[in-house]
Amino acid sequence: MDILKDLEAIKENFKTEYEKCGCMLQLENVRTAFLGRKGELNNILKNISSLSVDEKRVIGKQANMLKNEFSVRLRELKEALMDSQSSDETHGIDVTLPGIRPRIGTTHPLTKTLSRINNIFISMGFRIAEGREIETEFYNFEALNIPLDHPSRDAFDTFYVDEKYLLRSHTSNVQIHVMEDRKPPIQVIMPGRVYRPDAVDATHSFMFHQVEGLMVDKDISFSDLKGVLLYFCKSMFGEDIKMRLRPHFFPFTEPSAEVDISCIMCKGKGCRVCSGNGWLEILGAGMVNPKVFEAVGYDTDRYTGFAFGMGAERIAMLLYGIEDIRLFYENDIRFLGQFA
Length: 340
Ligand code: PHE
Fold this sequence. Notes:
Elements lengths: L1 H19 L3 H12 L4 H7 L6 H35 L21 H15 L3 E2 L5 E3 H4 L24 E3 L4 H10 L4 E10 L11 E11 L4 H16 L5 E8 L2 E10 L16 E10 L1 H6 L8 E8 H9 L12 H4 L4
Parallel strand pairs: 1-4
Antiparallel strand pairs: 2-3, 4-5, 5-9, 6-7, 7-8, 8-9
Helix pairs in contact: 1-2, 1-4, 2-4, 5-8, 5-10
Bound molecules: phenylalanine (PHE).
């Protein structure tokens, strides 16, 4: 019978492999190869049903004998291996050495800053909205009343992907999506990445983060804007922070302002960080220009609103005294590890 010969061959094979076993891993491999569900013995027993009753008896008996023999041999070997491992350093492993402690990660300072900003606005009832980073000219410019001849639409100031798409140069595009999708009252902040083809240096990066804000309803006034921003500045930088608004121009807000806080380093006395004038610019803001409401089909007689936008890196740099924006993106754990 061929099968008996096969069993004989398996026995021989087992002997050779067994004698080569020098460690638990090899032993486990031999066990799977010969006794496992898909092992050599099971392979043979799988086909036993096609045999005659006599053949079945002989082969079944033989196979069971081998199974027992293999198990006993492997158990003996296992015990021997365990003895030799516990008594010396067979494998060069000294189990008494202390382990390698895994590094515990820390939250990125920018992520920390963004969530602080978000939480302050959430505490005032704002919700978070997110928009797309690859955008059309309509959402990034036209709907925001930025005309074709505005310098920010120049190829030097914006990354164009092709004729139709560009990388958004600010988060103000999300204002338009939100207003297209919903009716007032609206009270959202819109954090996210923005892109500008600026040469990289200590204060510029081709990519950075902004947090945009938008509130629209009946009777929203400039004093609401001031109240919200003052609350934000004090929550972010401390109760004794002063805030001032300087007239400015943005096509999508009217009137517009740039917002400064008293220098957090010198408390307004004048130092290197505030270039000696005691104030730090932190964001742009204003009342939503009715032309923007027209672009999204809002009734300009019924609704008013305010919008603002700030650079998250700038806020984080002031908050933590970081002097180079590039540190945020270099993944240097000597830097990142300081923000536990
Ligand atoms: N989008 C402006 C910028 O990137 C910031 C801004 C947002 C100003 C909303 C006013 C209102 O500079």
